[in-house]
Specification:
alpha+beta; 3-stranded antiparallel β-sheet; 8 helices; 44% helix
């Protein structure tokens, strides 16, 4: 796993911590705790922003404890958000190094063929590992190059809906699909978009078919279900999922699924985490 992948996973974990801390802070009492030392004894005060401070009696221990915990949570939140800002700046300012022509021009099939021909003639030469990629796949490994260079049948339905551009120079149908495609591309995970697949004699077109030589099928399917608020869409999803299960696909192994609805959009950090977990 490269540094970008590790930091992406760390970023996702920190966002979860940030959400939890903010939720807990929302349930804490207003104001903050002040402790005034007086010789060997100490006094507690409840400080407010817009009204005078109030003393906290020793009998009101629970309030003092809650305010102390609130202070601790605020320090934790500051640390988490500082770390998130540092990671975010690094991920934005430190792009991946190009490791081959395939990396910066994946759709150039002539280039693919020439590159494959070169490696066929030079069996012992490996592509330069200037930028270590996820696992042992990457765009420059020979099996991946061969797989990427092969033609495949694409989904013929509504090509006019292919309107969202991606970093890999393919057009997809939604911003969420573009998000997934870009995360895969940035991490050098070879994939095909809406490639035909026969499932129990029926042709389906998974959103993403990902080259995975270490898996039993050599590929992993990634389906994104983006309209889960629609009853008819959810029913079609159940039918499609049932077909995958009947064909022996196992969620979490050779079938990745992501979901969203209007008030719960797809989280890029979750996509990064899934990518690192399955192809790291």
């Amino acid at each position: 796993m490269n540094l970008h992948a590790y930091l992406s996973i760390e970023e996702a974990a920190l966002y979860k911590q940030q959400k939890y801390i903010k939720e807990r802070l929302g349930s804490m009492p207003d104001g903050r705790l002040s402790i005034v030392k007086n010789g060997r004894s100490s006094r507690w005060k409840h400080l407010y922003d817009k009204k005078p401070a109030e003393p906290i009696s020793k009998k009101n221990l629970l309030l003092a404890e809650e305010l102390a915990y609130k202070c601790y949570l605020e320090d934790c939140l500051t640390a988490v958000e500082t770390r998130l800002e540092m990671i975010h700046r690094f991920l934005l300012s430190c792009p991946s190094l190009p490791v081959s022509p395939v990396d910066w021009n994946q759709d150039n099939k002539d280039l693919h063929s020439l590159l494959l021909s070169y490696y066929e003639r030079h069996h012992n030469e490996q592509p330069p590992a200037l930028n270590p990629t996820f696992g042992s796949v990457g765009f420059t490994q020979r099996p991946a190059l061969q797989w990427l260079s092969e033609d495949y049948k694409r989904c013929p339905d509504h090509p006019e809906h292919l309107i969202v551009p991606t970093l890999s120079n393919i057009m997809v149908r939604s911003k969420s699909e573009a998000l997934i495609a870009d995360v895969l591309f940035r991490n050098h995970v070879p994939f095909r978009y809406e490639a035909a697949l026969s499932v129990n004699g029926i042709t389906v077109y998974p959103d993403f078919t990902i080259f995975s030589p270490n898996s039993e099928r050599q590929t992993v399917i990634w389906e994104h279900f983006g309209l889960m608020g629609s009853e008819s869409y959810a029913q079609n999803m159940k039918t499609k999922l049932s077909a995958y299960l009947d064909a022996g696909y196992l969620p979490g192994i050779d079938l990745i699924m992501t979901f969203e609805r209007k008030l719960q959009p797809l989280d890029i950090n979750y996509v990064r985490m899934l990518t690192a977990y399955h192809f790291g």
